[in-house]
Specification:
- The protein is built from 11 helices and 5 strands; from the N terminus they run H-H-H-H-H-E-E-E-E-E-H-H-H-H-H-H.
- With 356 residues, it is mostly helical.
- The protein has 3 domains: 46 residues, no CATH class; 183 residues, no CATH class; 65 residues, no CATH class.
- The strands form 2 sheets. Strands 1-4-5 form a 3-stranded antiparallel β-sheet. Strands 2-3 form a two-stranded antiparallel ribbon.
Length: 356
Amino acid sequence: MSHETTTPTAEPAASPPVPSIGQCENCGAPLYGKYCYACGQPIQGMVRHFSSVMSDIADSILNIDERLFRTIGPLYLRPGKLTLDYFEGKRARYVTPFRLVFFLAIAAFFAIQLTVRSGFTSMPKEAARISTGSSGPSVSVTRTPKISAPVSSDDGAFSQGNIVINDKVLWNRDTKPLKVAWLPGVVVDWLNESIGNAQQQLHAMNEGSFTEQQDARRKFTLGLFSAAPTVLFLLLPLFALLLKIFYTFKKRLYMEHLIVAMHSHAFLMLSMLVLVGIAALRHLLLPHAGWLKVPLYLLTAAAWIWMFMYLWLMQKRVYRQGWFMTNLKYWSLGFCYLIMMGFGWVFAVLLSLTGA
């Protein structure tokens, strides 16, 4: 008769309890991290150093931390990398698409503002010559159509000028303003104010001393360049809709196309920052090192060429279609987007003229 002996199975050692770091000031529960597990209140409130509060705000809104540096490199140098990683669930290491494009839009806006104000970037002289005389055609002329100069009223108060075609007053802020019955009064007032601002801008660019004309054109240029990031940001959902239409048979969700659009627009805004940086280098270095002129202009050309190549490679890698279909859809999308950009550019010009 055999006797079997059984050895009792050893139970796994229990993990040591996590030490408490204090008690929640709201509910009294023990604390084991930055938030109370019982009521959810964070340990830190607003009563602390201002720099710490601003750091939390920047992280919450813009997600500015080490992830930004892990994102910028692939965004500019590896077409489609961020988008494909996002679709595969590898999201924690990168800045989220919306925060990325939002942050770069703000950075591009302020960079363009600073460079234009500093004289690093300016409109070509040929495009800026809109005054009367031998230098080119006039925007504000005394023929048809004509925009008269701002005049003073009888009581000495400043009054907006007229917009006149064939000696017929079409608009005057005081006597013949724009009226739209179905719009709220505040919107109509804003439209009339914008028309008046545009009239003054055009008049200032064509009348007065040379210095006044240059100042007016510089202001117009500043507004035009500054509106570019805003236009790109507003075109995001429309570009995603175009992708949805062109890739209908891929059966992807609209949000997937929106991710592609956000990453591509983030790249465009980052490219704007690169071009602004090169323009600043030209402005700073060329007066002291003329031999850098050709390398810097070649670098600018390379940055422009890379913009088109990047978007083409990104489209090929993300949607994984053949070369023929990729090329066909790339150029078709580019044509449609160019039309949208045309409307956006007109919008930017109007914003610049109206001083909005």
